[in-house]
Design goal:
Number of strands: 9
Distance between the termini: 84 Å
Shape: elongated
Strand order of the largest sheet: 1-2-3-4-5
Number of helices: 2
Helix content: 25-40%
Strand content: 25-35%
Structural class: alpha+beta
Order of helices and strands: HHEEEEEEEEE
Number of domains: 1
Largest sheet: 5 strands, antiparallel
């Protein structure tokens, strides 16, 4: 084999090897991207699922035949009206917070859990006050009855809540408002919520990709749909 033939063979081999490496690299990047997006979807389902479950339980209390709303859901900070089961705080430039309360029967008999998935294991009916927030580590957190804010899901940069308010008592939502725009006496008329969570995009920086991805869900409160 002549030197020229050897050089040609080496050149062909080099180009083939380059092609194989390029294909392998692209395949690996695609596999990594798919894994990252799959994780994002899991995080979205978990975060929105937890908030949905808690909101759908808002205002529940056992034995409504013998217990009045005034007794079950009295005025108690941050709830400013009898019968109010949700509350919130929204500040410009910061994620909202969401607080939801309901009662859980003794010994976990009604299967009502708090936002951390815990049953009431006591012999008495208790009130669960669940507060959702986004912390500095970009985690969705929840505290129960003023306790420690426990991280639930990471990679979340924003939480926005619009509350569906029935302002005329006809059983239908008239408008969706942020917490700051709802009068203290109007909170018992909240029938639903539009919850938007903003997640970090794992593909940010790639062509055509935004820095964040938002997910919005409509959620009806228990007994008010």
């Amino acid at each position: 084999m002549s030197l020229l033939e050897i050089l040609v063979a080496l050149s062909i081999g080099f180009f083939l090897l380059t092609g194989i490496i390029t294909v392998f690299s692209a395949t690996r990047q695609n596999f990594t991207a798919q894994g990252q997006m799959s994780q994002l979807q899991d995080d979205q389902r978990m975060a929105m699922g937890i908030v949905t479950t808690v909101l759908q339980e808002a205002g529940f209390f056992p034995a409504p035949q013998t217990t009045t709303v005034a007794v079950a859901l009295p005025v108690a900070a941050p709830f400013t009206a009898v019968g109010q089961s949700v509350s919130g705080v929204n500040t410009a430039g910061a994620p909202d917070t969401l607080t939801v309360r309901y009662l859980a029967g003794a010994n976990g008999g009604d299967s009502m859990t708090d936002c951390n998935g815990k049953l009431n294991t006591t012999a008495l009916t208790v009130t669960f006050v669940n507060t959702f927030a986004i912390n500095a580590n970009k985690e969705l957190t929840c505290s129960v009855n003023g306790g420690v804010q426990r991280p639930l899901v990471g990679g979340i940069t924003g939480l926005t809540i619009l509350f569906g308010v029935d302002s005329d008592g006809n059983g239908s939502v008239n408008q969706y408002l942020p917490a700051a725009s709802i009068a203290a006496s109007a909170w018992p008329g909240v029938l639903s919520a539009l919850v938007t969570m903003t997640f970090q995009n794992p593909l940010a920086g790639q062509p055509g990709q935004n820095a964040t991805i938002s997910l919005t869900r409509f959620i009806s409160l228990m007994g008010k749909s």
